[in-house]
Write a structure and sequence with these properties.
This protein is mainly beta. It is 0% helix and 51% strand. It is built from no helices and 8 strands. The strands form 2 sheets. A 5-stranded antiparallel beta sheet has the order 1-2-3-8-5, with no helix packed on it. The protein is globular, with a radius of gyration of 12 Å. The model has no long low-confidence stretch (mean pLDDT 91).
């Protein structure tokens, strides 16, 4: 998560720290909810085709390209 080109993702969000990393043929999306309440984030559908490489909840709440981010939830997708 520390190598590759860094680009903020949803930079105007007040509750989310998110970014992408691009290195060669791989892309990673990292999402972090730093709030104690749930929030919903819509992401591009292609990220769901990737692999979840790390998360701190046992499942991911997804519906129609929207992730229900639980308190202090973090997840990283790799495509």
């Amino acid at each position: 998560m520390s190598e590759g080109d860094y680009k903020p993702y949803a930079p105007d969000s007040t509750w989310l720290y998110a970014f992408t990393r691009n290195l060669k043929n791989q892309k990673m999306l990292v999402l972090n909810n730093f709030r104690s309440e749930e929030n919903i984030l819509e992401i591009e559908e292609n990220w769901f085709d990737g692999e979840i490489v790390i998360q701190n909840y046992p499942d991911l709440k997804v519906r129609d390209n929207k992730i229900q981010m639980r308190p202090f939830e973090s997840v990283a997708f790799l495509i």
